[in-house]
Amino acid sequence: MLHVVLFEPEIPQNTGNIARTCAATNTALDLVHPLGFDISDKAVKHAGLDYWKDVKITEYKSIAEFLSKHENDKLFFYSTKARFTYNKITYPQGEDCYIIFGKESKGIPEEVLLAHPET
Questions:
Q1: Mind listing the pLDDT tens digit for each residue in 25-75?
Q2: 55: which residues sit within 8 A by CB, 6+ positions away?
Q3: Tell me, what CATH number does 21's domain have?
Q4: What is the torsion angle, in degrees rounded to the nearest 10, for the CA atoms of residue 17, residue 53, residue 92 and residue 60?
Q5: What are phi and psi of 42, to 5 degrees?
Q6: What is the domain count for the chain?
Q7: Residue 34: is the preceding peptide bond cis (ω within 30°)?
Q8: pLDDT band for position 21 (50/70/90)?
Q9: Could you give the CA distance from residue 24 to residue 19 in angstroms, rounded to a whole number?
Q10: CA-closest candidate to residue 19, choices 7, 34, 31
Q11: DSSP code of 61?
Q12: In what order do the strands lie in the sheet with 2-7?
């Protein structure tokens, strides 16, 4: 299954819109804390419309927890500092795949990118 992972998202409307896209594409949504808002925030719920019930959501306490639980999975980090563009990557079929986005203001922490140079 494809997973969209949000590291420490800050803007509730962005998360709600991504959740709606996940519902439409049968994609899981993984949220990595701390979040910049309460998940029950009205803006998050409004942006996700009535699709929240259709989204498989997993929450993690920290980036470290997420990375330790998925150290053997296919991880793809989307960053302005990436060595490859998203359309130059061959994504695996039939297995879990995680596409990861950092917080809106800072992106993915540099130490995470340095620890995963191949992705």
A1: 999 999 999 999 888 767 677 766 677 889 999 999 999 999 999 999 999
A2: 19, 22, 23, 28, 29, 48
A3: 3.40.1280.10
A4: 80
A5: -55, -40
A6: 1
A7: yes
A8: very high
A9: 9
A10: 31
A11: S
A12: 57-60, 28-32, 2-7, 97-101, 74-78
Q: Are 31 and 99 in contact (CB under 8 A)?
A: no
Burial class from Cβ neighbours inside 10 Å (0-12, 13-18, 19+) for residue 74 reads middle
Q: Is the dihedral of CA 44, 48, 49, 51 positive or negative?
A: negative
Instruction: Convert the pLDDT of each residue in 80-98 to its tens digit.
Output: 877 777 788 888 888 999 9
For 10, the domain range is 2-115
> Are the C-beta atoms of 101 and 5 separated by less than 8 Å?
yes
Query: Cβ distance 19 to 112 under 8 Å?
Result: no
